[in-house]
């Protein structure tokens, strides 16, 4: 829930003159920018009858982005002590500009995740955080989380999302200053070890306000299919074993998706490509994600922009929400959105292929949805009914297109328990259970509905869904095709437990 003390401190810390100045900057940036879509802005929210139906807690699907960079992803002059920070070296937009663009492209929550560096914890605390407070006031329609792109010890970058509370700035300062591998000056090689990552997760787990940790572009450093780089299956398992309520997933669709529009690789995956815009760890059926789910892990995928510089200005990025969206089933409340991310009430899409997705498993008078578990009795040799309900885009996306869903796949895998091989990245039981085309779904209001029955379920399993605008049976390795012509959506799983 919102911390009332924090809201009060934000309001009192900024004068009316400062608000006018910041509002003018934001308005000028947007009005003068050639980067704003010429089509109508997407609605920033759903009303309670649009999106998730029948949720007694007034939750609806809310789009967001937990990996966005601002001008505070800057540079450090280490020829002086302490290092001198300068803004705008790697990413160029003010925090408020990102929030304005997130609102324009239909997001209701977002997170500024700037790079670390020597003594960056102090920059975050003293410079970036006050700008975030101003942005929250100027763009109240977008809930703006505080956190960073954490320089995870022994790993690639990760989201470090801090819960919204009166001590959020100090909490991030403590974690970054103590554990981020690039924060010490002079550099400390002892920070860049898996033991330090375990120490970080142990500290985070012990905090009263528990943060979230999500791996970024997890296979960007991989040199081949299943030949991993900085992030490995063993490290994911070890971290999730230690802090399952903290370390909860990775980006299924990484950012930098506009790379091909400037002759680069989608996601910046220069060593081994993405597949339909998704990381190999997610896109390969029976691959690493399925291996983790097959152990019964609650391990989720997200989709982000990783926005630094828009592609029309020479970068490789889309604005927050322009191309990739992470939908969370939640109230418009910091605490409930974070709860949705923690517990897998999440689905993701690119290019606004769809705007709503529900996945329900039912049996023996019970049902469960994304992130939840349906328990059925073994004695009854139960059938499990799967319902998939999705809503196509009614208007046009950020490219001025109205994409069409050509196929939806139901993917099912068995849950067989912990794997003794911490390096395992396969689940041989996972398969595409069924494929559905337009003739297989029926219209229900603005939605399309697909139903399928899993017969005589006798083992624990999970079910997940993906869909595409293409005719590819499996997502192909990405080249220089336009990302707008290769769209996919993925659900997180629903679990079935047989007892």
Automatic annotation (TrEMBL):
<dbReference type="InterPro" id="IPR016195">
    <property type="entry name" value="Pol/histidinol_Pase-like"/>
</dbReference>
<dbReference type="InterPro" id="IPR006311">
    <property type="entry name" value="TAT_signal"/>
</dbReference>
<protein>
    <recommendedName>
        <fullName>Phosphoesterase</fullName>
    </recommendedName>
</protein>
